[in-house]
Amino acid sequence: MALLPLGYLIVVAARADPAVLLAQVVRPRSLMLLVSSVGLAAIVTAISVVLGVGAAWLIERSSLPGRRMWGVAAALPLAIPSYVAAFSWISAVPGIAGFPGAVVVLSLSCFPYVFLPTAAALRRLDPAMEEASRSLGIGAVATFWRVTVPQLRPAVAAGALLVSLYTLSDFGAVSILRYDTFTRVIFTSFNASFDRTPAVVLSGMLVLVTAVIVLAEARTRGRARYARLGSGAAREPSRIALGRMRLPAYGALGVLAGASLGLPLVTMGYWLSIGRSAEFDLPRILEAIGGSLVLAGGGAVVTMLLALPVGLLAARHSGRLPGLLERATYLGHAVPAIVIALSLVFFTVRYAIGVYLSIPLVLFAYAVLFLPLAVGTVRASAAQSPPVFEEVARSLGRAPRQVLRTITLPLAAPGIAAGTALVFLAAIKELTATLVLHPTGMDTLAIQLWSETSTRSYAAAAPYAALLMLVSVIPTYLLGRDRRRTGDLSSPLPAGA
Amino acid sequence: MSELAISGVEKSFGSTAVLRGLSLDVAEGMIAAVLGPSGCGKTTLLRVIAGFEVPDAGEIRIGGRTVASRTVGVPPERRTIGFVPQEGALFPHLSVRGNVAYGLGRSRERSARVLEVLDLVDLAHLVERMPHELSGGQQQRVAVARALAPRPALVLLDEPFSSLDAGLRSDVRDVVQAALRADGATAVLVTHDQEEALSTADLVAVMQHGRIVQAADPVTVYRAPLDLDVAAFVGDVIQVTARFSGGFADTEVGRLALRDPRPPDGVGVALIRPEQFVVVDRNGGPAPRTDSGLAVPATAGQQSFLGHDALLSVSLASGAVVTARALDPGPAGERPVWLSVRGSVNGYSTARGKTQRL
């Protein structure tokens, strides 16, 4: 089921005239898009690695006070949807539109992807390794490069992969900042004409680019072998006194937090205070809230229902079929939302016109997008109840189905509830698929923010941005408090790709 | 009629053969202990009996009914067994009552039975507690009560006491043993602790390399182990070379009476338990007469004090060193002693390359 959209895309592409397809691919415009998208992804990834590793080192390894607070501040930008960040930047600095804006906004939104795993790796690193190096006569700086950095490489690489995938699939930020990448052009060409070929070709190219990146990352990882990082070093690593560098370090982190968190908050406050009475359309806001609740709530329930069997199967059986099933659901993760949305449009127009632009279609799209998130939590929570419980229950005369009902599900329930909440939060922030697939006349917070920002009515957009910030940041902070410690990136998902 | 009958069971994981034609019979009402070193396949055996694993070959019958064979595979829930896993594994979301009642149907006597089995393990007063509010030993006892509640034909216990500390262990073991006996349950427990096996079970089955090499009552297994491997596994042994003739073994430590089954006359190894040695001070007098003829002169050396008794190294004239268990090891340091052996010993024709344990 998760494969359906992608499969359909391939079918459509295969049926088209190869000459036409080729003509589309080699059009200068397509090649330019390739350069602009990949270039943006490369630059954003590079900046994110610098920001993420730097922040991780300062926070974990230097004598900087207030480590906990800085840690939270450096992780939080992940929760703010990139299109909300884009709104705050373009409304504050209109001149930033285009490439510079895209680089700034996406780098500030994405660097936590590198920061979180790197900080976690730094924490897990056994200080004895560095001490051994020092005792062998290697200086502190040389030890950092020769012992610490190689240990961090897998974490940094994993983070960088996420950043580049996120940047390639991001639609909200680049479209608000008016910078043409694959996603934005796919959307406009789909909106503008009935000829679906350009959109399909561009989608295919985008999917290919992401596939190449994923494969390349998998290959480099396959060759390198890293011993498992020691589980929880007993001792605190020694922290490096910053001395005179203390003030600059503070300044750097301060600027980073200010740009990624402070600026959105300040702009939002400014627009809210300006536009108070004149432009707030309360009924519309309420309607958007209602739409968001219906779609996100329904999406969360549907996704979780679909995820339950896959997750339970994957947690209990390590056979080939469950593994394959689980991996298939992860495809939704790697394929950009715009591609999934578009393929659903094509599919329903042709085979199921009845559900075209209907609520069930949006829910289905959410299910495809967020299945990995839901399967992950189900799997993790099912792993909370070791198989021995089920064996004991079987030995006490209960059939497998009763065991599932009386033992496995009750034990997994808290995790399943948390997973549903996570999907709900991810869905309420989702912009791309919602924008393409939502029923005519139905509005959500994300759609309203996007359309008001597109027409540059920033004051009118502010309440939606504020509400989205609220639902993004607070629950993420609560849910992520202990997740942050382990550097688990499986959730919450990138906001509103 | 035996309650549990296992014949020729085989089980491999990939290319590793874990059970190799294992057979074992346990009579009704007996507590059997399967004793073996870690990794010998004990837990796999238990899981095959319970039905969590399917044997590759062989047959298992519980209470006369075939539950596993080439053609039959009864699922675990229909085998009328009770299973007590290693750490108890109480369902964390259910109270003690909920746990114990889990295997009981909706019968009227349900709550009476819950209290009855909890009473057997002395925990009836904790019926409303949640598992995390219990100590390790209490959890283990509730797990036993839970397994007993549906009156299973067979209770299986996987290293039930190994997760408890030493002091608690014997208390819990006594309570569980009493509960099993009071309920007339047939039980199979697996353990790597020989003391636990010898003290708890009616039948000790020594398992090695995927087979039961000897199954007998604890005294027989200890006093008349089938071979030197079994002997060494169920307790410390001293091996001395011997010449067998006419029911006696002539050895460096004297002429020792042989137990049945006697080895054929000739050369072999006599097996002595450390507690059979008698050590008395030697100060000039003639050698005392003992069970094993005249005591032999030796030198007592290093001691390791164990509290209830002590181990004492004794060097023989030949230079060989044996270990004696003594209630009172005497003064520290080397001193001349007379060494003799109390009671009869086992003789084996070949030593199979085993060296003396000290």
Describe it for me?
- The complex is a heterodimer of chains A (497) and B (358).
- Chain A has 497 residues and is mostly helical.
- Chain A has helices at residues 4-15, 18-26, 28-61, 67-75, 82-92, 99-124, 127-135, 140-169, 172-176, 182-192, 197-223, 246-274, 276-279, 282-316, 320-334, 337-351, 359-382, 387-395, 400-429, 432-437, 445-454, 458-486.
- In chain A, helix 1 packs across helix 16, helix 5 crosses helix 6 (99-124) and helix 14 (282-316) runs antiparallel to helix 15.
- Chain B is of the alpha+beta class.
- Chain B has eight helices and 22 strands.
- Chain B has a six-stranded mixed sheet, sandwiched between helices. A five-stranded antiparallel sheet of chain B has the order 13-12-11-14-22, with no helix packed on it. A five-stranded antiparallel sheet of chain B has the order 15-21-18-19-20, with no helix packed on it.
- The model of chain B is unreliable at 351-358 (pLDDT under 50).
- Chain A binds chain B through residues 386, 388-389, 391-399, 406-407, 410-411, and chain B through 50-52, 75-83, 85-86, 89, 91-93, 102-103, 146-147, 149-150, 156.
Core attributes:
heterodimer, A: 497 residues, mainly alpha, 22 helices, B: 358 residues, alpha+beta, six-stranded mixed β-sheet, five-stranded antiparallel β-sheet, 8 helices, disordered C terminus
